[in-house]
Amino acid sequence: MGAEKKPPGIVNMGPDACLVRLGSEEFVLLVPGRSPAEARWLAEEIRHPVARVDDLTAWTISLGVSAVEPGEADFSAAIERAARSLYRAKAQGVTVPRPEAASGLPLCPP
């Protein structure tokens, strides 16, 4: 049998991934056990199908990426960092992920 093909626009984020809606347009994707680099890769996998939509309607997506840092007791600080990076991406008006570490510095260059 050949390799199983996934439908376009479907991203497999692993069995432990959890998507949570925070607001009308805001979602948090929790991916336990993933590195910041893997989280950025997932953000790109989500972004690419949106960026390639060939339609009369313009589609954009703004993504904030963060990680729970060692010593943090819960997700709240990581979600706040991701929200800040999301709003920076929205302000720039581009369809790109903007990751941020606990230090407030980007996890990787834009």
Automatic annotation (TrEMBL):
PROSITE patterns, sorted: GGDEF (PS50887)
SUPFAM superfamilies: Nucleotide cyclase
Domain of life: Bacteria
Organism: Methylorubrum extorquens
Enzyme type, top EC level: transferase
GO cellular component, one term: plasma membrane
Any GO BP: negative regulation of bacterial-type flagellum-dependent cell motility
Name of the protein this chain belongs to: diguanylate cyclase
EC number(s) recorded for this UniProt protein: 2.7.7.65
Catalytic activities: 2 GTP = 3',3'-c-di-GMP + 2 diphosphate
InterPro entries referenced in this protein's UniProt entry, alphabetically: Diguanylate_Cyclase, GGDEF_dom, Nucleotide_cyclase, Rev_trsase/Diguanyl_cyclase
Any one GO MF annotation of this record: diguanylate cyclase activity
Domain (GGDEF): residue spans on this chain: 1-102
